[in-house]
Design a protein that fits this description.
The chain is an alpha/beta fold and about 180 residues long. Helix content is about 45%, strand content about 20%. Helix 2 links the parallel strand 1 and strand 2. About 35% of the residues are buried.
Length: about 180
């Protein structure tokens, strides 16, 4: 998608509700970091940690091994965020936190241990913030919010156009306000 299209969608989303962060591939970090940060949105680069400082981004999110989390922490320093996608692995999540991750992203729809959702378990046991990383629709909030995620990821359809971005973020914001 063209950068101007993505920036337009981001502006519409920010006007419709609270947008905390934006996860971008390294190939788009150079073009999206400044416009997103101007809107008060933290920019996280997915993948190569070296892309975050190169592009002035606020941090990086990786989905790799515990060793990679430690390497990412060293690469971006203490002034940038390191996030780790843990899928539904409690073990990796704890190791990533110990290795220096500032937040954990979970597949809130993944398998649960003993019937307890991973987001609920993490929120109850750990202080490090977590993201319900699989795209969330407003109707998902009834199940998700009692699990107490710190952040959620809106549906990917928000990137179709500015109207979709505004509609999706507004709907989530309204549902969040009701809880």
């Amino acid at each position: 998608m063209p950068v101007a299209h993505l920036v337009g969608c981001l502006k519409a989303a920010c006007a419709a509700g609270d947008v905390a962060s934006l996860l971008v591939p390294g190939s788009l970090a150079r073009d999206l970091t400044a416009p997103a940060q101007a809107l008060g949105v933290a920019v996280l680069v997915s993948g190569d940690p070296r892309e975050a400082p190169r592009n002035g981004a606020d941090g990086v999110q990786i989905d790799a091994t515990t060793e990679d989390v430690g390497d990412a922490r060293q690469s971006v320093g203490k002034d940038r965020f390191v996030g780790a996608f843990a899928s539904a692995s409690r073990h990796f999540a704890m190791e990533a936190a110990e290795a220096g991750a500032d937040y954990l992203a979970f597949d809130q729809n993944g398998a649960s241990v003993g019937g307890e959702p991973i987001v609920k378990w993490w929120s109850a046991m750990m202080e490090i913030p977590c993201v319900a990383f699989m795209p969330v629709e407003p109707e998902d909030l009834d199940i998700l919010l009692p699990q107490k995620p710190d952040f959620i990821r809106p549906a990917d359809a928000m990137w179709q156009d500015e109207e979709s971005a505004a509609r999706i973020v507004s709907a989530l914001t309204q549902r969040l306000g009701q809880k």
